[in-house]
Fold this sequence. Notes:
Helix content is 8%, strand content 28%. It has 132 residues and is mainly beta.
Amino acid sequence: MNTTYFLNLVAGNVFKTKTSPAIPTTYYLGLSKTAPNADGTGVSEPSGGAYARISLSGKLGTPNDGVVANSASVNFPEATANWGNATHFVVYDAATNGNLLMYGALDPQRNITSGTTLTINQGDLQLRVSNP
């Protein structure tokens, strides 16, 4: 899913009706323990325990039928504390704070405990810009 913010950002930049802010050049993958909303709210990222969003630079392939998938595995750092039950992935325009752009359900959900390294295998993260 895409947030309304991201859809407006893309449409404004593509059709040159609102080009500020520009389309991000780097995207960051994170996790949420709750379901995000199209207005960018509802995200509950883990905190502490070595949790950090992961840059997707160099990890996304070329579009195929409007879908961009990860061309390499994406590895989160090993949890040094319990992160809880991750139910969704989130994509932001910044490593911390920033704007929520995209999100989707993890299938299956993952309970991330200390000592766990979450990996999104090659091709399993599929992103598209479409109306939510």
